[in-house]
Amino acid sequence: MFHLANRFGTVFRFPFTVWLCLVLAVSLLTGCGSDQAQRAESSEQPQSVSTAADTSATGANTPASSGERTVKDELGHEITVPAEPKRVFAPYLEDSLLKLGIKPVVQWSNGNMAHAYLQEELKDVPKLDFSGGLPSPEVIMSYNPDLIILHTATYAANGTYENYAKIAPTYVFQNASGDVEKSLVTLGELLGKSAEADQALKAYRQKVQEAKEKLDQAVGGKKVAIMRFAAKGVSLMGANYLCGNVVHQQLGVGKSKLVENANSANVTLETLSNLDADYIFVINAYGQGTQRMKEMTESSIWKSIPAVKQGHVYEVNDEYWLGSGLIAYEKIIDDTVKLLAK
């Protein structure tokens, strides 16, 4: 029995069980008041902000932490490029890829015929036939690319871009063959190989300058015609793309008036007599122009051309003279110097 006196001196007597209940009730009331105070204090404090470490810990992927970049291709598509692409599908850009030290997961071919001048470096890379058109998305998916690069806008037409973009980020050039040096810079940026691109371009431009000096001394003021014999006809290549750009634009060798303001010009027996050139480079495109070459070179008109009479006709290697990339261009320069600056 516990005793409790009031201010009047009256003593109240409580059984032990009643006293215990009173103590427990007071404890509970005190605890509740403390929790409410803590909650009130917490609500007045500023909320914490997620840090980069918090984001990474939750598995979120951000450009800052992953190294991925968002770029816009030449058709205006915005794509997210992997930080370090490992499996690149870039048909017809094998030359430039090799200059950057990269092998694609598969290489372009026409039937079983690929870029012959690159086959030593690409001997372990499977060929993919484009002779029947662009490969289906299912075929591309089987190579598991993490980046797709299309060298021309025509490759992206008719829903191809949308289908390929579902497989991997897909970058499209308007025409990568139009300005190979510019395209190489872009590829370097996409693939994290800008230093390699800069080094390759520096070496190439030095080679061009040295060759140009030799040619200026040997054949300054002379003209060269680059004739392409193919299954569909004969054409004269201008100075705006491929080997024509190398010979006429970069090396500064003169061109025929037939392609003065044109990318190319069709050549027939009727127009052949108007060919004004001191030297003729002949290209048998993929071996498919043999018959047309025979017909034209055996004609009396061909034999009357001054360059032919002087023995200034040279058949050059179609493997790289129709190639697109610095490796091909370097070989074209070597041939031109060898043939003209004797």
From TrEMBL:
Gene3D superfamilies: Nitrogenase molybdenum iron protein domain. It is found in: Cell envelope. GO terms for cellular component: outer membrane-bounded periplasmic space. Residues 85-342 form the Fe/B12 periplasmic-binding domain. Keywords: Coiled coil, Signal, Transport. SUPFAM superfamilies: Helical backbone' metal receptor (SSF53807). Residues 38-68 have a biased composition (Polar residues). Residues 194-221 form a coiled coil. It holds the Pfam family Peripla_BP_2. Residues 38-72 are annotated as: Disordered. GO terms for biological process: iron coordination entity transport. Its main location: other. Belongs to the bacterial solute-binding protein 8 family. This is ABC transporter substrate-binding protein. It comes from Brevibacillus aydinogluensis.
